[in-house]
Write the structure tokens for this entry.
Amino acid sequence: MTQKASGNVDACPITKETWEARAEAKKADCGGQSVYHCLADGEGRKWERCVEKTRIKEGFCPIFRSDGYIAWKACNTSESTCPNRTYLSNEVYEYVYCLGNNSANTYEQENEELRRAKGFDDWEVFAIVFTILCTIAVVFGLIILWKKRSSLNLQDDRGQQMLFKVGRSKGIVKERVFNGTSLLLRSDVKSLVVLGKLGNAVSSTSRRISKKFKKLKNWGTLDCRYTEIPDTVNEKTIMFVNGWFGIWNDDLCSLEKAKTACQSLSRILSETNKVKLIIGMRSDLFMKYHGELIVDDYKTHLFLHEINLDSANNDEDAEYAKYFYKNISNKCQSSPCAFRRLTCDMIQTGKDNAVGMPLKLKLIQKYHDLMHNYEGEWDIYTAMRYHFNSLENDERKRHVYAWIVYICLKGHFTRDEPFDTELVKKLGFQIDKPSFNEKEMQGYFMVRNSNAMTNASPSNAQYHFWHPFIYICAFQLLFEKDPELVMKYCNVDAILQLVRPKGVKTSYFEVTADEHYVNLFNERIHELNLAERYEKNPLVKSRTCDTKRASQELQ
């Protein structure tokens, strides 16, 4: 039998007693905050390592990445042994599903048989592999040096691309792109899901994987929202599908559309040769809906292979701290600044945990000069609220604030569409269509990706907030100031996605409306004949319910 790599074992403990006994035996190998773990890797091999424990959400299993850190992998929630609660990574023995085939290491056995069949012993294999790897490393190094000056500039105008390298070392960035690309290069892998919090660079990571795959295979690319999937796709195409469940947030009525999209994607993968798929999705929405999105056999479904950008990573945390002190904190030392007392730990542990660290750091850096001190727990929305209020109170920048409010209410701005002068009068702003200056507004708005990719003319280009969270912050501020204005004049999609009636649990991204404002919105929704389409949204009431309520009030 071939000697195992250090830490590789045949099986992991599956009871508390055996786990604790093994942890005691390995105690000398662990130090600091690290504790004993026995987890599977992406190939199903089992490893014993000392790492910091992390909290794992229900419906997910911890696995070891290639660098030894812990990642998350979704499991089949229909299985009784799939985690049904939030738990610590060193409690995985309670959920045997997460350990897979927890017996003799078939992976090692298969490789042993393969080597014997080819007539090589272990040392010969090692020598050959070592020589090949050294040769590849030299060639690869020369290629990198040759192409260094023409490398991709990620700080472009495609909003979320700006987040890709914020607080992340080149090693972390390359590893995630490499892992995703490597998975898709396998003949048995047709789809990959990239998961992460809002603001954790899901879209930019997905596009980078797509770009890398395209370069390696010389394929075409297709980038679309889940509601815009074409009936057919050309061979040798890698697809990236995003925008699941809503532009800004979950509209609570899109599950059937999402199921239909998954069915279409499964059909395309089964009917068309040489097509690969990347699905980019917010991790909280994936946790909420992934069990209902499995529309085919579990072993071959769309979400079997994943890259989870939320996985705990000590190296990444260190990079965030380094980025914060270099690009934000150090600039505050010589002058009064709202962030002089702020630390990276405060940002990571604030009540805005639903927002990814790359976005939070980028916002603080980008809008640094117009954010002010405030009391209480750190919250990026509070910081953005101060920023918007600063714009409103600055005569030189009030027109920028006016455009933020206008585009928030309308959802987007396009030069060839009618300008809502009546709304502007109601708001008391002094702006008109010609006053929109792209250079002046580029700190907040960008051209829609599809328009940029097709080189749409300036008159047809659709401008929107460069990141959905900027829109959410503007929406919440407007709702705080004037909920009636929002419910009467804001675009319907945003209200359905971001407002919940009293009594309904809200997330960090949502606000609560009392019955008066809910009724105002329902008047609009019925006048627009949209009540039936969105009847599953708790904001929307049927005419029958309204009639019964009125009758009860009269009695």
Q: What stands out?
A: The CA atoms of residues 427 and 437 lie 20 Å apart. DSSP finds 20 helices and 17 strands in the chain. The chain has a mean pLDDT of 81. The longest helix spans residues 122-147.
